[in-house]
């Protein structure tokens, strides 16, 4: 694998983790909202990644380097929405319950820390590859 491919892989990781961080931020921002623009409660979103081969490689498929990209951002329809008893709330139903998003703030904070560390790891890979490239260029002087 060439150093340029290393930059491609690290860059793809940073891009994917950046989108993951934005999705977590959106989830946290809407964690206590009662209704979105469509009048329905917000549902948590999750980023799904997929591996993609790095361009310009030859050899066995099992030995080729792979980058990452966002396959899709899914809406969590399996986790039930939260219901909170607040009969004075304007969005309360007949029984006095308000339906809130299915966002778990603790899980989202853990997801945010994981994405942040993965992003930083990719930055470190790119920085190390840059240093190696500069050292290689200085050998010819």
Automatic annotation (TrEMBL):
Localization (cell): Bacterial flagellum basal body
Family designation: Belongs to the flagella basal body rod proteins family.
Domain of life according to the entry: Bacteria
Any GO BP annotation: bacterial-type flagellum-dependent swarming motility
Keywords of the record: Bacterial flagellum, Cell projection, Cilium, Flagellum
Annotated protein name in UniProt: Flagellar basal-body rod protein FlgC
CC annotations in GO: bacterial-type flagellum basal body, rod
Subunit structure and binding partners: The basal body constitutes a major portion of the flagellar organelle and consists of four rings (L,P,S, and M) mounted on a central rod. The rod consists of about 26 subunits of FlgG in the distal portion, and FlgB, FlgC and FlgF are thought to build up the proximal portion of the rod with about 6 subunits each.
Pfam families the UniProt entry points to: Flg_bb_rod, Flg_bbr_C
Ranges for domain Flagellar basal-body/hook protein C-terminal: 95-139
InterPro entries linked to this entry: Flag_bb_rod_N, Flagellar_basal_body_rod_CS, Flg_bb/hook_C_dom, FlgC
Domain Flagellar basal body rod protein N-terminal: 8-36
Biological source species: Parvibium lacunae
């Amino acid at each position: 694998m060439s150093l340029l491919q290393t930059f491609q892989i690290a860059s793809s990781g940073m891009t994917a983790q950046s989108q993951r961080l934005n999705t977590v931020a959106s989830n946290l921002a809407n964690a206590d909202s009662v209704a979105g623009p469509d009048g329905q409660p917000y549902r948590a979103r999750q980023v799904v990644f997929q591996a993609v081969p790095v361009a310009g490689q030859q050899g066995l498929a099992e030995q080729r380097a792979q980058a990452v990209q966002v396959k899709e951002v899914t809406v969590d329809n399996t986790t039930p929405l939260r219901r909170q008893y607040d009969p004075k709330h304007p969005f309360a139903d007949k029984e006095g319950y308000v339906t809130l998003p299915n966002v778990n703030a603790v899980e989202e904070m853990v997801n945010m820390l994981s994405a942040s560390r993965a992003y930083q790891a990719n930055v470190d890979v790119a920085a190390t590859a840059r240093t190696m490239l500069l050292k290689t260029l200085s050998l010819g002087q």
